[in-house]
Amino acid sequence: MNILVVRNDKLGDFITALPTFYVLKHYNPANRIIALVAPLNRKLAESCDFIDEVIVDGGEDILELAFKIRKANIDASVTLFSNTRVALAQWIARIPIRIAPATKIAQIFYNRRIIQRRSEVKMAEFEYNLQLARALFSDLSLDYPKPLLHFSDTNFKKFCAEYEVTKPVVAFHPGFGGSSDANWTLDEYMKLVSIATENQAIDVVMTFGPDEDRLYAEAKNLLGESRVVLYRSVESIVDFAALLSRFKLFVSTSTGTYHLASASGCETFTFFGDSTFASAARWKSIGEESKQHHFMIPLDTEGRSKRFETVKQELKNRLLKGF
Questions:
Q1: Using an 8 Å Cβ cutoff, are 202 and 168 in contact?
Q2: Which one of 162, 169, 297, 300 is most buried, by most CB atoms within 10 A?
């Protein structure tokens, strides 16, 4: 069976879909799993051995997208996040079985509509995604390995040689990105970094995305002659994931890089907005839950200050345990 799985939005959202691709492929290895993804996620999708083909949604018009889908000879589709354009394209492509959440006007173009009410956050986003896959195969096992993503150590060895890294790496990613709506300031991150640099048994790294040049420059100015390594990720997401898979701890807001780190096996300290929509209950990652440490950032000044003190102490405690 040729199965199309649609998750054509941001990095973190796509990573929450990876278990769904995996369980559909392993339900029957003869299944051909086809991913419809945003351009940003193409290389990551292509690196997954449980995805057989990748269709890139480049924002073309409905008919052109429908033509792309039609060429793949799809027997069934599971659309994890839908809009009218994607729904109509699948209908035009005449996919026999079209599964999606029963939300928005787009649901009229699907013939298996599943009521989920994700806003109630009765489970995490990736668990809602897996639930949709069960609408195709009722006896589908939802188990998947953790970590789900695996990479060679080639990039990490190159990184270590270039930046003279010889110890376990604790990394901080101060940027926002994605749809995260809560984070510490750069000055607050510097206080966390300072705690880490007191530990001589680790190497401390700060990472920055390709569009965070100003943040990188500000951090460099604040650090001065510090032993902290500043790393700009200007290569592919796969290259960055390969680094994260060898890091010991990744500290960031709940953006796509957090999901990437957790899915690659790295332990995480992650900051979430203090609301149901932005919470860890909804956006926890697909990685090993025992390796995820979640902190909600209150909106009020006093609550935020108290939570930051908690984070500092928890970080100290974690670093004392060693790696």
A1: yes
A2: 169
Residue 46 main-chain phi, psi, to 5 deg: -65, -20
Q: What does 33-87 look like in DSSP terms, one character per residue? A: EEEEE-GGGHHHHHT-TT--EEEE--S--HHHHHHHHHHT--SEEEESS--HHHH
What are the angstrom distances between the C-alpha of 172 and each of 150, 246, 257? 21, 14, 11
CA dihedral 45, 50, 55, 59 (to 10 degrees): -50
The pLDDT-based confidence of 117 (bands split at 50, 70, 90) is: confident
Stated pTM of the model: 0.94
Q: What is the DSSP letter of 205?
A: E
CA distance 182 to 258: 13
Q: Which of 287, 289, 315 is nearest to 188 (CA)?
A: 315
Burial code of 145-154, b = ≥16 C-beta within 10 A, e = fewer? ebbbbebeee
List of residues 6+ apart from 108 with CB closer than 8 A? 87
Residue type, 63: L
CA distance 139 to 134: 7
Q: Residue 133: which residues within 8 A CB-CB, separation 6 or more?
A: 20, 23, 24, 78, 140, 142
Q: Does the structural domain 2-134 have CATH classification 3.40.190.150? A: no
- CATH code that applies to domain 154-321: 3.40.50.2000
Domain boundaries, the chain: 2-134, 154-321
Question: In this model, does residue 103 exceed pLDDT 90?
Answer: no
Task: Please give the backbone phi and psi of residue 233, each rounded to the nearest 5 degrees, phi first.
Answer: -85, 100
Task: Determine the length of the chain.
Answer: 323
pLDDT surpassing 70 at residue 178 = no
Q: What whole-number distance in Å separates Cα of residue 192 and Cα of residue 195?
A: 5
Task: Give the integer Cα–Cα distance in Å for 176 and 227.
Answer: 24
